[in-house]
Each structure stands twice: as structure tokens, then as C-alpha cells.
Amino acid sequence: MDFKDLLAYKKAFQLAMEIFEISKKFPKEEIYSLTDQIRRSSRSPAAQIAEAYRKRQYPKYYLSKLSDGDAENAETQVWLAFAYACGYLERSKYLHLHGLSVEVGKLIGNMMRNPQKFGVKQQN
User: Fold this and answer.
1) Overall number of domains in the chain
2) What digits encode the pLDDT tens for the residues 9-47?
3) What is the CA radius of gyration of the chain?
4) Structural domain contains residue 122
């Protein structure tokens, strides 16, 4: 199995791409603050999942990378809340993106709680 086959990766990638598309409509004055921050944080979980999966022979590294991805996903939720509060997102779009982010968090959590299902060797 390749990391691209993982549901967590697929959903995280989808979220990042949807955020990229919607953030194109954010005001120009937000380009170096909100737009840049939300794009960075939303892309990180997919990258962290990929890294964790490729380093799964090292259980501590695997968990550390997934933890980083989960934290970045939480940061994305904060930026989404700011975008909504500033009026850059319609309620329906905010709820959709936030819901997708929550789903990504649950999938990452599952990978962390059940590492053996993802090929991580038990430590002796």
C-alpha cells in the first residue's frame, strides 16, 4: 500500500485543495496573513501523514509526525473560523470545510491509536 491510498491522506489532500480554491477569493490584504497561513496549515496534514507512513518502521517517529499533522489540522480549524468571522466564507462552506477537517482529525487519531493496522511494528 502507498500513502496515497490512505483515507486520511485522501481527505487531508481534498481539504487542502478545497481551501486553496476558496482562499483565491480572500481579499488581497490577507495574502500574507490569513491566506498564507490557512494554505500552509491545511497542506501540512497530508504531508505529515505521508512522512509518518513512510517512517512507520520507527514507531516514535510515526506517532510524532501524525501528532504534528493533527496539530496543523487544528490550526486550520482556527484559520477557518477567522475566515468565517471576517465574512470571507459563507456559513455552508465554513461548515463543510470544518466538517472535513474534523473528519481528517478523526482519521489521524485512528492512525495514532491503531498503529499496527498501518504496518507499525510493536516496540519490544
Assistant:
1) 1
2) 999 999 999 999 999 999 999 999 999 999 999 999 999
3) 15
4) no
